[in-house]
Amino acid sequence: MHPTIGNPRRQFLKTAAGAGAAALSGLAGAQAFDFRPSQRYPDPAVMILDPSFAKYRLYSSTLEQLGSGMRWAEGPVYFPEQGTLLLSDIPNNRLMKYDEKTGTFGVHKTNVNYANGNTRDRQGRLVTCEHSVTRRIVRTEKDGRMTVLADSFEGKRLNAPNDIVARSDDSIWFTDPTFGINGEWEGTRATPEQATTNVYRIAKDGALTAVITDLVNPNGLAFSPDERTLYVVEWKGTPHRSMWRYDVAADGASVSNKTKLIDAGGPGAFDGFRVDRDGNLWCGWGHSGALAAEPTDIGGGMKAYLPTARSDEMDGVKVFNPQGKPIGFIRLPERCANLEFGGPKRNRLYMASSHSLYALYVEAHGAV
Predict the structure, then answer these.
(1) Residue 156: half-sphere exposure toward Cβ, Cα within 13 Å
(2) Fewer C-beta neighbours within 10 Å, C or N terminus of the chain?
(3) CA distance linking residue 96 with residue 114, whole number of Å
(4) Would you call the peptide bond into 239 cis, given omega within 30 degrees of 0 as the criterion?
(5) pTM, whole model, 2 decimals?
(6) What Å distances lie between residue 4 and 15, 34, 36, 269, CA to CA?
(7) What are phi and psi of 205, to 5 degrees?
């Protein structure tokens, strides 16, 4: 890569990428990765898999890196009142913040119990999945106080709350796999107390119910624009990772008619996702980590079990229409774990991707 001289945008990106590490006050940061945006329109990273996606691609919009230096970025949530985006850096046990007005990126809060998914409730408050140590759902009040919304079910501790959404009836829905207690990287190892990995609903009055109990490590979830359909990613489906759809009851308290909408295929992997106003699903996408059945000679007298596909060809955001057909793909230099629509017009796609936060303006708008 040729050095860039006198380019203020490049200098800003380097400054923004290092802001998180500078604000750590003694905590170790992570490598901040350089990024060079496309100089040409349309951006070749934005790919049309079906002609129906063409209307969502802005011809004169290119991918941007807004900050770097995280170890595993997750859970982006946008606050229109402040024009800010919060997201989790799970292994570093902190929340990060990007400010649209100033373009700054840095640490928002540390020691957050390995926070994973985040959402904004209908009153504009942050609701967070603390997916290790405390293993609970907490709401940050406007004055900064913390309110615990759920930490146990039927007398036993939750597993590791992962992703979370708020519905218009003021209920909160979240997934509860075991990722945050499986090891020491994204939390602290612990033995699960729940017999199953569930999708839960917290009613407006605080009552907690398990609405889905038969998925193996449910992950991302979201509602359709009319909230009549719930989509849930199953991390360890049969035989592959899958996207399931459910009909939501008229009272909004239960679901039925489980249907597999999308099979990710052998090498493919869903994570978090968002739905636009037209009902399209914008999904964090990448390689599942699956290994070949037989080892390959890698030289030096060694054989290794290699991945079944190339991550650099799969990392990004894959877009599906409401019928489950892939229509678009945004190629990223890192694996995208989760995303969020933000900006004053809700047409700026923020992508939490491994070490970095990326953004792209699109001709689509977030459903909520």
Answers:
(1) 11
(2) N
(3) 12
(4) yes
(5) 0.92
(6) 14, 12, 10, 36
(7) -85, 5
- At residue 239, the pLDDT reads 80
23-53 pLDDT tens trace: 333 334 678 989 999 999 999 999 999 999 9
Residue 244, both tokens: 């399931």
The 8-class DSSP code of residue 14 comes to H
The token duo for 198 is 């569930």
β-pairing, 126-130 with 136-140? antiparallel
Identify which of 316, 322, 323 has the alpha carbon closest to the alpha carbon of residue 338. Answer: 316
E strand or H helix that includes residue 209: strand 208-212
CA–CA dist 29, 20 (Å, integer): 7
231 with 238: CB under 8 angstroms?
no
- Write the single-letter amino acid at 3: P
DSSP codes, 249-316: PTTSS-EEEEEEEEE--SSEEEEEEEEBTT--EEEEEEE---B-SS-EEEETTEEE--BSS-HHHH-E
Contact status, residue 136 vs residue 158, Cβ threshold 8 Å: yes
Q: Mind listing the pLDDT tens digit for each residue in 325-352?
A: 999 999 999 999 999 999 999 999 999 9
- Residue 91: CB atoms within 10 A of its CB come to 16
